[in-house]
Amino acid sequence: MHNPQLNKHGELAHLLSIEGLPKAILNQILDTAESFMEVSAREVKKVPLLRGKSVFNLFFENSTRTRTTFEIAAKRLSADVINLDINKSSTAKGETLLDTIDNLCAMHANLFVVRHASSGAPYLIAEHLQRTGRDDIHVVNAGDGRHAHPTQGLLDMYTIRHYKKDFTQLRVAIVGDILHSRVARSDIHALTTLGVPEVRAIGPETLLPKYMDKLGVHVFHDMNEGLKDCDVIIMLRLQNERMNGALLPSAGEYFRHYGLTPQKLALAKPDAIVMHPGPMNRGVEIHSAVADGAQAVILPQVTFGIAVRMAVMSIVAGN
Amino acid sequence: MNIEIKNGRVIDPKHGVDQHHTSLFVAEGTVIGMGATPAGFVADQTIDATGCVVCPGLIDLGARLNSIEAELAAAVAGGVTSVVVPPDADPPLDEPELADRLVHRGDEIGKARVLPLGALTLGLKGERLAELAGLKKAGCVAFSQANKPVVDTEALLRAMEYAATFDFAVWLQPQDYWLSRNGIAHEGEVASRLGLAGIPVAAETIAIGTIIQLVRITGCRVHLTRISSAAGMQLVHRAQHDGLPITCDVGVHHLLLTENDIGYFNPHARFCPPLRAQEDRQALSDSVAAGWAAICSDHTPVGADDKLLPFGEAKPGATGLEVLLPLTLKWAEAAQVDLPTALARITAMPARVLGSSAGSLAVGTNADICVFDPAATWQLAPEALKSRGKNSPWQGYMMSGQVRATLVGGRMVYQAQQ
Amino acid sequence: MSPLPNPLPDAEAQCRQLADLIRRQLSKNPALVGIYSGGAWIAERLKDLLGLTEEVGLIDVSFYRDDFSEKGLHPQCRPTVIPFDVEGRHIILVDDVLYTGRTTRAAINELFDYGRPAAVELAVLADRGGRELPVAATYGIWDVTLDDGQSLVLERKDDAQLAWRLEHA
User: Fold this and answer.
1) pLDDT at residue A62, as a whole number
2) Which of A55, A239, B122, C149 would you call most buried, defined as having the most Cβ atoms within 10 angstroms of its Cβ?
3) Which residues contact B257 (CB under 8 A, 6 or more apart)?
């Protein structure tokens, strides 16, 4: 099957998912991001790479935080950034997703950053662009349904590489609501592609997808067992609407079993790092002492995220 | 009008007939003989069926007729001479007048026979009973909820009791409401990977279990539509083995495709019930080969705009009337099922489900006949389809098996352009 | 301009000549900035030859190239490293081959995003002509004429010695 992310030369034309990307492309993105980290430390935090190009942030689902990081990244590449909050505009008037895309293409868009509540929506857009012969317009997935959040996955990999150097000796645990998490799916594909020998998923059965073993993941229901000797702990956000209901009885019970406390963190390796895609629910999935502790790398993740998004946008825009 | 269909391979699965290079004779709308020319027969029209198969017209146990004229033209172009229409039209077929009008319109168009299923409950809401006897009188062949489950089990029990009173058959698509309402794909490896909300096999088996118990209590004749899982099929077969009056069918796409065909969120691979795992597909194929289930097209024409959406927002279903025959042939080849057996699943077997004498070429039966060239290939492209529904996971694929002529009641209703 | 000699000149000897030219300017306390990859090697060599203690700067112009729209981002870009304050400094950009002048333009632009230098000079081992921008080397060793399909590539051998190689398109 043709991988819609790659152009005919096998180069990254769209970033839709980590799944199906060769290791070389992941490494290219991480290496390029390292160059951009340096740019962000300069007097003038801007390079002229995407000068004259238009980046459209299409957020069909609200996320000020993610949108802002993409906006900063695009601006540091000298692109013109247009933020569209689609919730409030076109779809309310009955315009279809692809109508919206065609309209923005007519405004000479060069790159779409897409956040959508439906899994697979960015694929639909990329395939539409290909079908209509607009190979010079690129799509970056900023999170689609439960499916993928590839730039978050990549910034997580950047963070791990920064602190741990070598992927091939690591034990990584992902904790929490994996079922509904696009971040978890992207992390899992990235970790396995980059050669991490043991990826663990920790959570109650109600928050774990079926057939995790087929993704190369070891499932643990007991946090104490699952965190043992881990090098990296990725905590996931528990959405408010899932805290009380059929999936979980209460935030309190969840915290007692799956919240990351200093005691539980002590079971991991002493130099283990703690990551979180944000925004955090303190006292629900993570104890403040851990969130603000020496092992947390949650704020560096945000900084790396800008460089990774600059790398992704500049690579796809050039292919 | 006297018609001779000559030099074809005549296959009548119901009667074990499979004869090469022979003629079939039609007069006064009925089949009057095979082989030697009946005494005094003079053909007004001769159809040369050299290299073709002559078989009973196909009976499709499920086809939605959104734009009835185009869809009935599509039916006969696909060799289908009878279509069972589920009641989930707009508005739902829950009043005798609506059924009456549909049958009437079908007669007017004069292509395939239209066999409506009446709504079991008003508005398919699963609450209040529809006027079953009135609907029956207006031409409904059985009663159904299409793919809308009755949530309230007591309502279902009462509906089946009431139907049993009149010996009406009830057709149900077994799908537990609660376990399927949020799902968009088979709860399996692919859904986990793509982050699609899953519909577990248990949604089907729980519903089948409930229906089987209600059949035991009520004695109601039930036809289960679109079985999708190995476990579901096992339950149905066991109930049949126990002597319960239960029949079932499988959508032809479920015989050929699996969850893997979703690929990168292909909306054309969204079905209701969902395409399931390879083991399920294999079990369905084996069961159909063994004669436990009929095949139907589950024809669901969907406009392009309703498919050009993210997977979970796209409408489920595929166009089916014109691909029922080629896909059944494709399945037969892959499953190593002989041609008469394969044709039985789309002719004699659905006729048995309907309690109809159609689906055969016996002397004296209605001359509903399909003549097709099993070796002819054609490409599935929008312009190749008469149906308004161009939605198909087979878009662009080559199909083997092309209908040359279709007769309904001895009338030529379709003839391929040479 | 002179035709291509055979064998190609000794790049290490050319580095020594370049160091001799620059040595006269040492009173201005110049900072060396090498352009990846050949220019970076030469800058390191010059630092040793001139006995400078300050680390050289290294520039990868990938983010400043003017052919991004045609060629995309270079698949292997390295971080630019400028270990000193550019503001008010006398800077000598170092490259291996001066050709169209576009790389020099990109490097100057990038340099200015770090601050406003007092002066920028350009030192190259080879100048093959073919300029498309008004750029000239302040210090140059070897003027050479090449055919369109040819290019000069500076290599670093396993023993860290620099040497020229001729490539044909």
Assistant:
1) 85
2) A55
3) B269, B275, B281, B393
CB A50 within 8 A of CB A77: yes
pLDDT class of C147 with cuts at 50, 70, 90 = confident
Residue A43 has pLDDT above 90, yes or no: no
pLDDT at A90: 54
In sequence order, the β-bridge partners of residue B53 are B9, B372
Query: Is B265 at the interface with chain A, CB within 8 A?
Result: yes
Q: Is B306 a catalytic residue?
A: no
Looking at residue C101, the DSSP 8-state letter turns out to be S
Hey, what amino acid is at B404? Answer: R
B53-56 vs B3-12, strand pairing mode: parallel
Residues for chain C: how many in total? 169
Express each pLDDT in B64-118 by its tens digit. 999 999 999 999 999 999 999 999 999 999 999 999 999 999 999 999 999 999 9
A185 is in an annotated binding site: no
Q: Parse chain C into domains and list their residue ranges.
A: 11-168
Q: Shortest Cα distance from C149 to chain A (angstroms)?
A: 24
Q: Identify all chain A residues contacting B192, using CB atoms and an 8 Å cutoff.
A: 209-212, 214-215
Chains touching B (at least 3 CB pairs under 8 A) are A
Element (H, E) at B261: none
Distances in Å between the Cα of A83 and the Cα atoms of A40, A59, A68, A141, C36 are 22, 8, 10, 15, 37
pLDDT given for residue A240 in this prediction? 83
* Chain length of chain A: 319
What are the backbone dihedrals phi and psi of residue B60, each rounded to the nearest 5 degrees, phi first?
A: -100, 120
Segment C24-53, tens digit of pLDDT: 989 999 999 999 999 999 999 999 999 999
CA distances from residue B146 to A186, B168, B299 in whole angstroms, order as listed: 38, 16, 12
**Cα dist from A53 to A56, A126, A314, whole Å:** 10, 18, 11
* Tens of pLDDT, residues B286-310: 999 999 999 999 999 999 999 999 9
Q: Which of residues 52-111 of A touch B (CB under 8 A)?
A: 96-98
3-state secondary structure A84-99: EEHHHCHHHHCCCHHH
Helices B96-109 and B68-77, packing angle to 10 deg = 50
What type of residue sits at position B368? Answer: D
CATH 3.20.20.370 fits C11-168, yes or no: no
- Burial class of residue B177 (count of CB atoms within 10 Å of its CB; 0-12, 13-18, 19+): middle
At A94 the pLDDT is: 65
Q: How far apart are the first and last CA of chain C?
A: 22
Buried b (16+ CB within 10 A) or exposed e, C100-124: ebbbbbbbbebbebbbebeebbbbb
Q: Which of A167, A192, A58 is nearest to A114 (CA)?
A: A58
A182: annotated binding-site residue?
Answer: yes
Evaluate whether B293 touches B328 at the Cβ level (below 8 Å).
Answer: no
* Cα–Cα distance list, B323 to A292, B9, B73, C83 (Å): 62, 21, 13, 70
The pLDDT confidence band at residue A89, using thresholds 50, 70 and 90, is low
Residue C152 CB burial class (10 angstroms; 0-12, 13-18, ≥19): buried
A202 lies within 8 A of chain B by CB: no
The closest alpha carbon to B142, from B350, B367, B345, belongs to B350
3-state secondary structure A7-71: CCCCCECCECCCCCCCHHHHHHHHHHHHHHHHHCCCCCCCCCCCCCCEEEEEECCCCHHHHHHHH
Q: What is the pLDDT of residues B176-232, one digit of tens each?
A: 999 999 999 999 999 999 999 999 999 999 999 999 999 999 999 999 999 999 999
Chains B and C touch (3+ CB pairs under 8 A): no
